[in-house]
Amino acid sequence: MGLTAKSTGSGVLSSDIRVEKGSPDDKVIVIAGNPNVGKSTVFNGLTGLHQHTGNWPGKTVSIAQGTCKGREFSYVLVDVPGTYSLLAHSVEEEVARNFICFGSPDAAVVVCDATCLERSLNLALQVMEICPKTLICVNLLDEAKRKNIHIDLGKLEKCLGVPVVGTSAHKKSSLKKITDKLDELCGGKITPEPRRLHYIKPIEQAVSIVEPVLKKHLGNVISARWLALRIIDNDSSLAEESERFFGKNPNDIAEVSEAVERAKSLLAENDITSDCLKDRIVSCILLNAEEVCGECECCEGCQNAFSRADRILTSRFLGYPIMLLMLLMIFWITIVGANYPSELLSTALFWLGDRLGELMTLLNAPEWLNGLLVDGAYRVLAWVVAVMLPPMAIFFPLFTLLEDLGYLPRVAYNLDKPFCKCKACGKQSLTMCMGFGCNAAGIVGCRIIDSRRERLIAMLTNVFVPCNGRFPMILTIISLFFVGGAIGFAGSLLSAAALTGVIILGIAMTFLVSKILSATILRGEPSSFTLELPPFRKPQFGKILVRSLLDRTIFVLGRAAAVAAPAGLAIWLLANVTIGDTTLLNCITGFLDPFGRFIGMDGVIVTAFLLGLPANEIVIPLIVMTYMQQGSLAEIAPAQMLELFTANGWTPVTAICVIIFTLMHFPCSTSLLTIKKEAGGWKWAALAFVIPTVCGIIICAVIANAARLFC
Amino acid sequence: MNETKRLCDIEVGENAVVERLTIHGSMRRRMLDIGLCDGTVVECVGRSPMGDPSAYLIRGAVIAIRDCDSRGVIVRGI
Known about the structure:
The complex is a heterodimer.
Chain A: E1 27-33, H1 39-47, E2 64-69, E3 74-79, H2 91-102, E4 107-113, H3 117-130, E5 134-139, H4 141-146, E6 149-151, H5 153-160, E7 164-166, H6 176-186, H7 201-218, H8 224-232, H9 236-246, H10 254-269, H11 274-296, E8 297-299, H12 308-313, H13 319-362, H14 367-405, H15 407-421, H16 428-437, H17 439-445, H18 452-461, H19 471-481, H20 488-519, E9 530-532, H21 541-576, E10 578-579, E11 582-583, H22 584-598, H23 603-611, H24 619-630, H25 638-647, H26 652-663, H27 669-679, H28 682-710
Parallel strand pairs in A: 1-3, 1-4, 4-5, 5-7
Antiparallel strand pairs in A: 2-3, 6-8, 10-11
Helix pairs in contact in A: 3-11, 5-11, 7-8, 7-10, 13-14, 13-20, 14-21, 15-16, 16-17, 17-27, 18-20, 18-28, 19-20, 19-26, 21-24, 22-23, 23-24, 26-28, 27-28
Chain B: E1 4-6, E2 15-21, H1 25-33, E3 41-47, E4 54-58, E5 61-65, H2 67-70, E6 73-77
Antiparallel strand pairs in B: 1-6, 2-3, 2-6, 3-4, 4-5
């Protein structure tokens, strides 16, 4: 996926809300909206940032901020996760609501979907209730036009009492209208008179009992009317949040709780129980949205519906085969496409390495410095760039295309039943897809799952999807050992099939481990599941290609330089520091060797996996480096690598074990930290470390020992 | 007047109006969130390969709901 340095790596760890203003006069604007209405696109268009966008609900899982300039003011834009309402249930809805309520924004922009206006208005009306300075941005007007939906923006503005602008977020020029209106709104040129939501009489009476009491005690900081209704509605999480904000829990104020009791008994007299109250509130808002929509929208064509493509992609007989073919095709294109640049890069970089070596000799640099920098740091770096970068740079734009198109929610829809059988959530397949890009990003993505139990399952099993650091590694070993003979079309297809097989094994393990987890430490029943299937959208080809290629290259290069070079240094040092008559490296690998042999590998490979904890990309280069300390190789072409591995005792069984262990071992340090943060405790990080490692060790041991028995 | 039935029992292509919700707690809120309340028109637009969940057209959006959840939504056919 089009991961950026921000969305992966340690960047995913910071998600606390802290608005950074450039100057005190900057206006803070919160951008809210339903999931998948192009909120991130609007945000990116305004700020020029590259927040990742995709066509599935729940893409923005944490809060992003950026700045933009209007004619009069400078703005700090805060992009909160997409939500359907503010009567928060899931983590992301709570994040959004808390910021709108307690983040003291100067104004709010609600991005609405023109093709589905009524539902967007449901949220807009709720935001307007809290924050009167609201700007409605009706997005996707072009898409609506194609569907013959016409929206009278002027009438909408009158109905809602707040400014309305229409945009097509992909067209940057249309976004200028937003900043223009914001200027007027913040400069006081427009005084919004937001449409007041009228509830049924008993509710209005109940609110009027609590509202003045709240105003008296808390001041006019946030809409007392809105807060009163929430407190009457027993919204405990909001009460906690307001305690943090006001310094006291409204329920703890005697006068307030007394008023709330009176309001509740009034409601009870009118046959409105607490369960029923929520219904009444919601249906009231929905009716309002329906009414507004009826006045302003004229729809000649059909609305979003299940297209014919949908019927095929989710059909009984073709649904699963198409998913499999899709995966196979992506891998095949990746393999074929990566071959040539990989070869070219490897030749060029190793040629450069030789020249660097010569330069060192010319400069009379000491032997150890040459070894340290050229043989150590440079070689590992070059390897990562030549072998890992090309497949990543091809795989991710392809995957992003599928994502932009809107295929991923269909995958989640198709796979929900098996996940449900494992007592997990179908949205787990979305987080798995994110895991292909980066497990840490996938783990953060688990926030889209509402139930904590299911979220933990998804986090702990995310590592069974090989991330970008591991999948080129699996690919390398497959092409060295299993398709080495076959070249051309057949060879690449065979590699793709083998890789698909490995992925399927990973998916099978995900199901198995999810099932085991929900029968043991995370026992429970599957919770409810609702998932929106957005209409397919035409992907923005050019933008995706450029962005994901650039981001990917920069990200991989940065990470390689940060991790691969020091690791190369470390290996070189270990191999050159001697204790008695053996090197330190030999000591370590020798110590791990018996265990390595037991699980079908050797001490060197296990050492490399351990040293690869900060970044899995460097495992193979480390193996190669370590072997090379014993022999000597000038260049690492595939044939020579195979020779090197075979000379060090690798058999196809070793290769299989390495592939399986690559798929199933401890996640990288960033992922572990992310789990600790997201799950709230080292306990979960430790579990995330142990579970896949134990799985990998067991499977490898079984394979290795079975092979020994039969061969 | 048409008979009432559960939302999970309507056929693909069939339209219905929501009569009442019999579920409680968080699922009830979630249903209300996606716009399912008394009087909402729903159409079943498809089923996933294994027959569950199904996709419904609700207020202009296609939303997948599991049978065990849509069982708690009582509808009347149109």
